[in-house]
Amino acid sequence: IALEIVAETGSTNADLLARAVHLQQPTLLWTQLQTAGKGRAGRAWHTPPGSALTFSLAWKFNLPLQGLLGLPLAVGVVIAEALRSYGVEARLKWPNDVLKDEGKLAGILIETVVDKSGQVATWAVIGVGINIAQAADLSAQTGRAIGAATELAREPERVMATLLDGFAQALPVFEQHGFAAFVEAWNTLDAYAGQTVNILDQGQVLHSGQAAGVDASGRLLLDTAQGRITIAAGDVSLRIR
Length: 241
Ligand code: ATP
Fold this sequence. Notes:
By secondary structure, the chain is α+β, with helices and mostly antiparallel strands. Helix content is about 25%, strand content about 40%.
């Protein structure tokens, strides 16, 4: 894996997306300051200076695009397990968040480029932001509870090395076996198992029920009054009710 470090950039995902098809090897781009971070569906990811570990990893999978559906959840497992090895009580929220206590500790944004050069391959640019400092105004700015793992700020290089190791081990496993190889770990780390939740689409409640973990494709299992249903990630959001 090639490692690149830059002092400042708009978005590490945008930078690697632009270069993905020309990359000769997996590449990790780590920035000290990200000024225009992205979330899902055009939402913003905020990174006040010094408050986060911010990086993207470009990885080529010999899979069609649909083979990557469960990847955000597998990446959540990699991050949560890496952070837990530092004593951080990281848990997972479907589909793509890492929580600490009730707050959002890390965000994951995966963007893809289908390689049209020959055999079936897809570049995934895996963007990760992990809060390592309490940024006072972040919670007000986002209207959401924020989690921060301040203990990681002491040794960011070592944490990055642990994360890199985790990805190097897990992504080939994902390529071969898909999310099925991660489903048990995901369900063990599920922050909302057994809790009553709402599934929202643009603020509207689509479904309510008890969260019952995820299946081997990474779909949410929800026990509703009408019985168990499965929900694909798409662009819905999960909220505790
Ligand atoms: P959900 O579905 O839970 O609403 P999401 O998965 O759609 O979240 P993302 O797209 O992953 O959210 O992340 C963008 C959102 O994260 C923003 O809308 C904002 O509320 C929140 N956010 C932005 N910056 C941070 C940060 N540094 N720490 C925690 N949360 C943040």
